[in-house]
Write a structure and sequence with these properties.
The structure is a single chain. The chain has about 140 residues and is an all-alpha fold. The radius of gyration is 22 Å and the shape is elongated. About 10% of the residues are buried.
Length: about 140
């Protein structure tokens, strides 16, 4: 009637990688928020009270109390996000299977193809996956 079609984000060459990124962020942001909330709850409120008595404004309290006290949580989140960036085989395999074309190929997906996860791609050379094979080991 109105000829409205859903966007083909996973099937468009220009949007397939962006949609994988959005999918991965949506998948992990809840976990990271719980870690940050736990870090915020561990900050002693007496530090904020003492800073307010000393005349610190909100910006100074954030940069001199909150941010330094959240550094361990932020470091943990940074390390976990780097590890999770090597674990995108599932998202790429389920959502786009590397396509359209090779627009959403990532290194881990290429290793998986060479290792035989996709039996339909007979054109993949085993040497390619053997060269990049340690990334599969890191992502497990």
């Amino acid at each position: 009637m109105f000829f409205l079609y859903p966007p083909g984000w996973f099937m468009d060459i220009h949007w397939s990688m962006t949609s994988i990124v959005i999918l991965t962020v949506w998948h992990t942001v809840g976990y990271y928020m719980v870690i940050l909330l736990a870090g915020l709850q561990n900050i002693n409120t007496e530090l904020y009270e003492a800073a307010a008595i000393d005349g610190a404004n909100a910006r100074q309290r954030y940069f001199r109390i909150t941010l330094p006290m959240l550094t361990p949580s932020l470091f943990f989140i940074m390390i976990m996000s780097m590890i999770n960036s090597l674990k995108v085989f599932d998202q790429v395999s389920v959502a786009t299977q590397g396509g359209p074309g090779t627009s959403s190929f990532v290194l881990v997906y290429r290793c998986g193809l060479g290792a035989g996860y996709n039996t339909q791609s007979a054109g993949m050379r085993p040497g390619d996956s053997a060269t990049a094979g340690p990334c599969v080991q890191l992502s497990q």
